[in-house]
Amino acid sequence: MHRRLIAPGALAASLLLAIPASAADYEPGAPGIGDPYYPAYGNGGYDVSHYDLRLKYQPETDKLEGTATLLATTTQDLSRFNLDFLLDVSEVRVNGAKASFKTSGEHELEVTPKTPLPKGTPVTVVVRYSGVPSSKSAYGFTSWHRTPDGGVGANEPEAAWWWFPSNDHPLDKATYDVSVSVPDGSQAISNGTLQSTSSRAGWTRYNWRSNKPQATYLATLAVGKFDVTTGKSESGIPIVNAYSKDLGDNYGAARASIERTGEVADWLTEYFGPYPFNALGGYVPNTAETGYALETQTRPFYSPRQFANGTNVSVVVHELAHQWYGNLVSVAGWKDIWINEGFARYAQWLWSEYEGEGTAQEIADYVYASHPADDAFWTVKPGDPGPENQFHIAVYDRGALALQALRNEIGDEAFFAILKGWPKQYAHGNATVGDFLKYAEKVSGQPLASLFDTWLYQASKPTGPAARDASISARSTVPVQPKSWKKIAETNSVHEH
After folding, report:
1. For the segment 447-489, what is each residue's pLDDT rounded down to a tens digit?
2. Are 115 and 97 spatial neighbours (Cβ–Cβ below 8 Å)?
3. 364, 370, 374, 379 alpha-carbon torsion, rounded to 10°
4. Of the candidates 8, 64, 308, 436, which lies 20 to 30 Å from 246 by C-alpha distance?
5. DSSP states of 55-109
6. What does DSSP assign to residue 20?
7. H helix count then E strand count, the chain
8. In Å, how far are 232, 240, 302 from 252, measured between CA atoms?
9. 0.90 cut: is pTM over it?
């Protein structure tokens, strides 16, 4: 609503008159949320607070049917808006009234409500849809993984389009209810807590709930035949883990690693503060074609390939560290990926220290010395790597080097205060690398812009003096490989997509 103030006159006192927006004042929401790395991802004009997804999935045919209900609020006078989605839509309703819709671009669903929506309006959007997710692609790829006994939605920076309509960007977090009906004998795994199950006429329905804000790429769905284990961490967080029944030789190593989830999460609280959610776990479907893992909120996805060489608790540490760095505090834009990956990698270095298999300093020295000055590794800037290098190994290892340099510069007391205070400062929100710099300067009381520039933004190997100033070895010979390095390096493909 637009308002104007009328001055007192002879016949009236001061009045505040509401002037309704004219049709010309309403504009379409932007087809992207404004991320320069991915201009078409997310949408403008509204903010989602909750997704209710009621689904039915047939593993044999990969057919998915769904009704998605989105609760949102408009952020502008809105004539139409976009959703990110790929499946076939049969009906859209906005606040109960049928809306017109059409597809555009690679993954856009354009929705025009029957009447325009003023800024600040609560909106309920209902989308009825169906399709075969594995038959859909955008930009030449798919984020839906077909398995011998079902399918999985898990990828970064996008996965939602293949199974539910959304505002697909970390800036728009929401809570979730995911209800999935599958044939008896199959299970449906998703985020959060399993609220209930029920069976009827050969189908079993699983009702999952995520009660804390969650980015769309962190929502996951897996249907298949799993061995499911349940328990609680020592701190009392319920744990649900699931392992595909046909993992073959990788089964034992996967289970021996992921069953330590509660232990690892409790250990991480010493560094990052209280665990931020009410559920824990992990799942390993038989996705033979993928090699990565993903920090899907409360229940990370792990490829069987992560355990091809035996147990790997280090990858569990990585994905659980993301529950604080990436999930609790999410990127404001995808250029800020360092505040996800640099910290999750550094958690692996801390775990190595804890296990007595090489200190964080020894690993930092090894990484620094292992890459000569002319290695392309140093041309990737972790603070702004570009979309083509968003998951480059330099974002992980050079990103962790930056944290060791920071630790050496400000000392352990300030450094670990920052690691624990940062998730609390931006809990359930979004932040940038610049925000982290300001926070680190505030806590440490030291100017840090030059150090951050050297380790995060210079497209070259820090020189000997810069490395020495940060207490990173500048020796010409490569230090002895830390004992933990092999397991850490096995997770180098953790987010290769």
Report:
1. 999 999 999 999 999 988 878 877 887 666 778 999 999 889 9
2. yes
3. -40
4. 64
5. EEEETTTTEEEEEEEEEEEESS-BS-EEEE--SEEEEEEETTEE-EEEEETTTEE
6. P
7. 11, 24
8. 21, 17, 14
9. yes
